[in-house]
Write a structure and sequence with these properties.
The complex is a heterodimer of chains A (about 550) and B (about 500). Chain A has helices spanning about 5-25, 30-50, 75-95, 105-125, 125-145, 150-185, 190-195, 200-215, 225-235, 240-255, 260, 265-285, 295-315, 320-335, 345-360, 370-395, 405, 410-535, 545-559, and strands at about 55-65, 65-75. Chain A has about 550 residues and is mostly helical. Chain A has a domain at about 405-465. The longest helix of chain A is centred in the last third of the chain and has 126 residues, at about 410-535. The model of chain A is unreliable at about 395-410 (pLDDT under 50). Chain B has a domain at about 275-490. In chain B, a hairpin with a 4-residue loop joins β1 (about 60-70) and β2. In chain B, α1 (about 5-25) runs antiparallel to α5, α6 (about 135-155) packs antiparallel against α7 (about 160-190) and α11 (about 245-270) runs parallel beside α13 (about 300-320). Classes of the chains: A mainly alpha (about 550), B mainly alpha (about 500).
């Protein structure tokens, strides 16, 4: 074969939305709905062709930071993308047929960006490329709620969604980097294999990061807040990115990390407990929040619980089909949201039971019997609560106390409703909602406190104060030490002058005067003496004395 | 002497000639002075690009002239892969700032002196990067400081600038003095100022002396990097300085501290002797990262928000270097470059906003997104860039820094804290962006369009940021070659 057909189909699926999005914006196409209604089936056709070509690896010839970029075409990945495309097409089709402008250019662009990045996230065989694609889809989810510069509440929604999804990305990055350190590669399969063989301590970090990322991206409780915001603010088909693509990418991540989850009984148990908690709390909390939370969010989170339970004990390829079944469930939920839904109520109500029973039935040997029993019990419970909740919404009965009227077991219902209300108040409202708000406010408050007390008072003004103290010390030194030395020097100088003056008076004035007087007196005395001497006669006889000494000397020399 | 060796000297000599021309040409208009400055910097930018082919063959280009023979001091410049990365960053940033200056009011008077000082500032950084002689290194190091202080004093905003310039001078000079102590100690021990020779001889120094020198070098250069709590000069200096000078200070000059750490303690001493300092560098990096981000979150002045973000970003770089691993340090070097581009972009955006609104308090600004969409897109890309959003550059450097943290085997928890701490960056970046471009309009009489002379360089830097992020290969290769050539034993 001259060229690889898989590569060709792959490129078409990747490039069609990019080209359509680009041309749609460039040519200012007004009927975006028709473009999408035509384009998505085209992609489905090529996706089917790719499926027929079988599982394969597509090398791109590119590298990211020294690591080869390649795509691994897997059946499960194709199935999930297929489900996503169908969901998108249905959402587009459901937009009103009268007014074609319901899909705005902004939504059109966002969806066309999400399509290739979602595809890359599903197919990438290199973890960092998958991470990048997930990150970009996260940004698109957040961006889908923005539609006006003047409405700041939209930007707050954007920030909350982006920050939460980014937190999930950071958890994922922790695990990727740890796995990369141990595996020495960014190849997902090799990294997961290496991760499964790690010692417990590093594996706890890896597992913690991955499961947190999965839960955040899948919008399961308590991380469903971003999806709730998105549901409230994202308009039209752009909600497809938040409602379908992001959670499915999260679940697919869970599918890929199953070897790590199943490598330790500890992780299996934690995943199971998380699943059960997510499931029960999602239902209970929504039970006490009538009118605030719609079925899509609630049952989306419930399905997250089931998926976590399944991941804990039943893995393998079948898990991919299980995920696909939940994609369809999400679509049914979206369909049944309005009262004019064409989907019969019984199908939507019973759907989770059908999925779980079929899945458990096919994998009966894999999960322990007790888990199977718990699973079935929870399935029944969730359906029961779901039906009750729907009935309440349909009856427009917002009162929790009114629950009893809808149930055949008023006592049970009453107490359950009371418990749900209490839990809602304590856990959801006090801890999660208020707690998060307090945490945010606390963080900002702490930042302000630190800014005021450390940065401004100590480091900025403190340095200024230090400078002033330094100047005061300098002034004091100037006045007391430096000036003191000056004074001492001046005193010494004065003393010197005094001493000099005294010395001058004494040595240069008084003594010379005295000396002069003395000299004068002496000279006068000498003069008088000379005069007296000159008046006397000369005595020649005294000249004989030396002569007499000479005679004695000669005499001594001879003898 | 080969022609390409002479060409290398041109990186310092041509800007000097530019300075001389500007000092002589007193009547030069702003455009004329800018032309001289931009031409000189363009030449300085072209030279390393021309020398790339030589560098590929021999990994180093050296220009050496005897200077003070009896003291073993020479005018010795050396271009290698590591210095190339820093040199290009610094020259590009200066060039962008000079072009941006044309749209600013700064430097309308005494334009020749203004551009001469910008050239000297850049020359100080180029010289610091290229110097292979400790004496020469210190001269350029101080030239950088003196030129920037003069720019602050003469063209800074408000009366406060005198005090700020003094604080900037004293604090950074204290750091410089610590570096000087080390340089003198090494000079006294080896009898030469040749830094290449030091690299072979430093191993023979006593262990305690090596530890002392490493500690002094690290603290001294950390002042220039503005690592908490040595950052005290930065917020005020960045705020008071005219915008083009702020751009150079934040985007280029901070990187000189990083270069100093790589060039001295890391290149001179064996990695095992740096090991005791590794965890402290990582902790200091983490604290700086979080502290800077919190301060940016608490600030109201948009210029100071971006200034504090530098403190935070330098924390990542110090953390990366502290890992003592190839990936960590590669990430740190790449972060220097990416941070420079993002920071230049964000300050340019701030400059335009201040220009059109006349306000710097984020609470007095709002709703600009609809009126200035191009500016909003540039700011969005800058904000996403600094948040580490792929495929923009900082994502590449950040994950390499974090990977280095895990590779170091020092502490998983410390690296995880640093990684999760990066979420604070996202929070303050979003607050900055949302506060300016979303919400109710708070200004009645805004110009229809932002000044073109400011917008064009801003858009150019935006495009450059995207390209750098999408094609990280060359930068990664240069960083890797540079690091492995001067630091042995990295894994």
């Amino acid at each position: 074969m001259i060229f690889d057909l898989s590569l060709l189909f792959f490129l078409i699926i990747l490039l069609v939305p990019l080209a359509a999005g680009f041309l749609g914006v460039l040519l200012k196409i007004s009927n975006q709905r028709h473009v999408l209604l035509f384009e998505v089936p085209l992609m489905i056709v090529f996706l089917s062709l790719l499926w027929f070509m079988g599982e394969s690896t597509i090398l791109t010839g590119l590298s990211f930071m020294g690591e080869v970029i390649y795509f691994s075409i897997s059946l499960n990945g194709i199935l999930l993308y297929f489900g996503l495309l169908v969901a998108l097409w249905v959402m587009v089709w459901r937009t009103t047929k009268k007014d074609h402008k319901t899909i705005t250019r902004w939504q059109f662009v966002l969806v066309h960006l999400a399509l290739p990045f979602g595809f890359v996230a599903l197919m990438s065989g290199q973890f960092m490329i998958r991470y990048i694609a997930l990150d970009v889809v996260g940004l698109l989810v957040a961006t889908s709620v923005l539609n006006s510069f003047s409405d700041k509440s939209r930007f707050r929604d954007f920030s909350a969604i982006f920050v939460l999804l980014r937190l999930g990305d950071l958890f994922l990055l922790v695990s990727i980097l740890l796995l990369n350190y141990h595996a020495g590669t960014l190849d997902i399969s090799q990294m997961i294999d290496a991760g499964a063989k790690l010692d417990l301590w590093p594996k706890i970090w890896v597992y913690g990061g991955l499961i947190s990322a999965v839960m955040i991206k899948s919008a399961v409780w308590p991380f469903s807040t971003w999806l709730r915001r998105s549901k409230r603010s994202a308009q039209g088909v752009s909600f497809w990115i938040a409602g379908f693509m992001m959670p499915i990418l999260g679940y697919y991540l869970l599918y890929r990390i199953l070897p790590i989850v199943n490598s330790s009984i500890l992780f299996q148990l934690i995943t199971l407990i998380l699943g059960v908690l997510v499931l029960i709390l999602s239902i209970l909390l929504s039970y006490g929040r009538l009118g605030e939370q719609d079925r899509f969010i609630r049952m989306g989170s419930v399905s997250g619980g089931f998926i976590l339970i399944a991941a804990a004990f039943i893995g393998g390829k079948a898990f991919g089909y299980y995920l696909l079944a939940w994609v369809i469930h999400r679509l049914i939920l979206l369909f049944t949201e309005d009262n004019n839904s064409s989907v019969p109520s019984a199908i939507s109500d019973a759907y989770p039971a059908i999925i779980n029973i079929v899945y458990i039935g096919f994998n009966i040997s894999e999960a322990p019997a007790i888990i199977t029993v718990i699973w079935l019990f929870l399935t029944g419970l969730s359906i029961y609560w779901d039906i009750t909740q729907n009935a309440k919404q349909k009856a427009k009965n917002i009162s929790i106390d009114g629950l009893g009227k809808l149930s055949k077991k008023p006592y049970f219902e009453k107490n359950l409703a009371g418990f749900a209300g209490w839990l809602n108040q304590k856990l959801e409202h006090n801890i999660l909602t208020l707690g998060f708000m307090k945490l945010s406010a606390g963080l900002v408050g702490f930042a302000h406190w630190l800014h005021r007390n450390l940065e401004m008072n100590v480091l900025t003004r403190g340095i200024g104060n230090l400078g002033r103290v330094f100047k005061s010390i300098a002034d004091w030194t100037q006045s007391h030490v430096e000036q003191g030395i000056d004074n001492v020097l001046i005193w010494i100088g004065r003393e010197f002058v005094h001493v000099s003056e005294d010395a001058f008076d004494l040595l240069e004035t008084e003594i010379p005067a005295r000396t002069a007087n003395l000299m004068d007196g002496t000279l006068h005395s000498l003069e008088g003496y000379e005069r007296r001497m000159l008046k006397k006669k000369l005595r020649w006889d005294l000249a004989l004395i030396p002569l007499f000494f000479v005679v004695i000397l000669v005499f001594l020399l001879i003898f | 002497m080969e022609n390409y060796e002479l060409l290398l000297s041109g990186i310092t000599l041509v800007p000097i000639m530019g300075v001389v021309v500007l000092l002589i040409w007193r009547n030069a208009t702003k455009k004329q002075a800018a032309a001289i400055g931009i031409l000189s910097e363009t030449f300085a930018l072209i030279v390393p690009l021309v020398l790339l082919s030589v560098l590929r063959k021999q990994d180093q280009v050296v220009f050496s002239l005897p200077w003070i023979r009896n003291m073993g001091i020479s005018f010795r410049l050396s271009l290698n892969w590591l210095s190339l990365v820093f040199l290009m960053t610094e020259i590009l940033v200066t060039l962008a700032a000079m072009i941006y200056s044309l749209g600013e009011k700064t430097g309308e008077k005494h334009s020749n002196y203004y551009y001469a000082l910008l050239l000297l500032f850049s020359l100080g950084m180029s010289g610091t990067t290229l110097a292979d002689d400790a004496f020469l290194f210190y001269i350029f190091w101080e030239l950088m400081l003196v030129a920037s202080v003069l720019l602050l004093l003469v063209w800074g905003h408000g009366e406060k600038r005198f005090g700020v310039a003094l604080k900037y001078f004293i604090v950074t000079h204290l750091g410089s003095l610590m570096v000087l102590v080390c340089l003198i100690t090494l000079y006294v021990n080896f009898g030469t100022a040749d830094m290449t020779e030091w690299m072979t001889q430093a191993v023979m120094l006593p262990g305690t002396l090596q530890a002392f020198l490493i500690a002094f070098f690290l603290i001294g250069f950390s002042v220039k990097m503005a690592i908490f709590p040595l950052h005290i000069w930065l917020p005020d200096a960045h705020t008071v300085a005219p915008m083009p000078v702020t751009i150079i200070l934040a985007a280029a000059m901070l990187s000189m501290g990083t270069y100093g750490i790589l060039r001295f303690p890391f290149a001179l001493f064996p990695l095992e002797n740096l090991q005791p300092f590794a965890i402290w560098m990582m902790i200091a990096g983490l604290i700086s990262e979080v502290y800077g981000a919190l301060m940016a979150l608490a600030e109201k002045d948009i210029k100071r928000i971006i200034a504090f973000s530098s403190v935070s970003q330098m924390g990542y770089i110090l953390f990366g270097m502290g890992t003592l691993t190839l990936r960590g340090m590669e990430g740190a070097v790449m972060h220097v470059v990416y941070h420079a581009i993002v920071k230049a972009l964000l300050f340019m955006v701030v400059g335009i906003i201040v220009n059109i609104t006349g306000k710097r308090d984020i609470q007095e600004i709002g709703g600009l997104g609809f009126k200035y969409p191009a500016l909003c897109v540039s700011a969005a890309i800058g904000v996403l860039g600094i948040s580490g959003m792929p495929p923009l550059g900082i994502f590449n450097s950040e994950w390499m820094i974090f990977a280095g943290g895990f590779d170091s085997g020092i502490s998983i928890a410390l690296t995880v804290m640093t990684l999760i701490g990066s979420l604070f960056t996202v929070i303050y970046a979003l607050r900055f962006f949302g506060g300016i471009f979303f919400g109710e309009k708070k200004h009645a009489d805004l110009p229809e369009k932002a000044p073109l002379a400011l917008v064009v360089p801003t858009l150019a830097v935006t495009a450059f940021l995207i390209i750098e992020g999408l094609i990280p290969g060359p930068l990664l290769q240069w960083a890797m070659q540079g690091l492995t050539s001067i630091i042995g034993g990295l894994n």
